[in-house]
Amino acid sequence: MTLVSQSRGNTAIVLLQITDYKSQRTASGLNDSARARYEQKTNCQMKNKATEIRLSESARLVLIDNFLSPLEEQQLFASCEKEFTWEQSEIAMFGKRVPIPRLNAWFGDYAYSYSGKTFAPKVLPPALMNVMVRIENEFSLDLNSVLANLYRDGSDCMGWHSDDEASLGVDPQIASVSLGGSRRFVIRNRQDKSDKHEVLLTGGSVVLMLGTFQHHWQHCVPKTKKTASKRINLTFRLIYPTAKPGKSTPAKRSEV
């Protein structure tokens, strides 16, 4: 059932009520026929509110609030904060090694590298595996890894970037789960940087970057001067093995 539909230039913003998207995927991420069926339903109770920004025919951003229940979200936040080995990585920037303004942790079948930093393969904990499998089942995505980020306060942030490393494949599909405090999530067109949109990521929500999103759009979590509670985001993705020696052996998955 469509609740609100707006347009900004060539971008359509649609607020939907969705139960799930368990149908098969298309190249643009979610199955159009499945979406149409849900939009046309008017007499059924639907539990999750989603904001979909249709950036083009092949690139979509979908935000689903309350993907996790408040109890699930609180328990997962506490588990991640306590049990992960958090580190402050350094990345290459303008020829120097610079500490990133947040803490991070990596879990996945294969090594993952970006901006000169390489994470070794590491088995996903059962709690993350459960969430990943749920995302795979509900949105028909293939995933095997997660990059976790811990934002300690409003000064911790994520700069403009696209998740387009070669190890992520041709059209990376990213599912990012938010835990804890709310933060702004801003996207901009890579060609026309004045073309921007933003959504608020609240605890328990999941944002899906689908289709060709990473080719044409960048995203960031900007700093804020407002009081900001600790926030963890879990960015699930599919990593492919590299051809470099020592980086193609997958970690053994935990039993769910």
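Above is the first protein from milestone M3; the second protein from the same milestone is given next.
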Amino acid sequence: MRFDLPENSRCFYHRDRKPIAICSECGAFFCAECGAVVGGDRVLCKKCIGREFGPEKWEECFAGGGVLGFLRTLRWVLLSPSRFFHSIEMRKQVSSVVMFAIIMEVLGSIAVVIYGGSADYFNLFLGAELAEKVMPYINLSLILVSPLIAVASLYILSLIYHLLSKPFGGDGSFTGTLKVIGYSSAANLLIFIPWIGGFLSIFYTLILYSRGFARIHRMGPLRAAAFALVPVMALMLILVVVAIALFQSIEGNLPYLLAPGS
């Protein structure tokens, strides 16, 4: 779609940017960050997208502790990620998205404990006998420290992606990157699906990343997908190397750990 815009026009939401389109609902000019094509033929600014498609968002009810707002946001992120990321304000406070990420990390940890996912890893590294003794403490610790893990991973991942966004042609803000990472943790809910939940969660997290990065960094779909995938693949490679090294270390010391009186 092409629009004949006045030479001196500016985005309604960013007075320092030139617009690329006119909202078909309210007539506001908006830049690439502030609107989207909806339904194939309608061009809407982010406020009109929010009014038409957006249920009460977590950010709008966070101060009041709205449980319904959280559930609606969770549903919206999972079912309509593109519309969700186009409707939220990327430069506002981040306390709401941090709390959202904490809640989703706690839920994900509970799912791992329920299905015994952590037990499989510790059986591998410690052996079934030793793992059986320590698993109740490990599971409790996993749930208790999950809020700290959520906050640390949210900011570390956001920093990594924000620094890597420039080589991929991205120009979004750190706050916007953090919000994409935080709200994409909604995919942790899929961990509750038996057997394949963990894989589905990782796969859908990457989809949410790509949708969010396409919006805030103004990337094409393919570039956003590649940008979402590369750091995750690098991180998985690092984790595999660390896991192998840890396994070799534990395997070498296992006789001493299981020896009587050790």
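Note on the second protein: Residues 54-258 form one domain.
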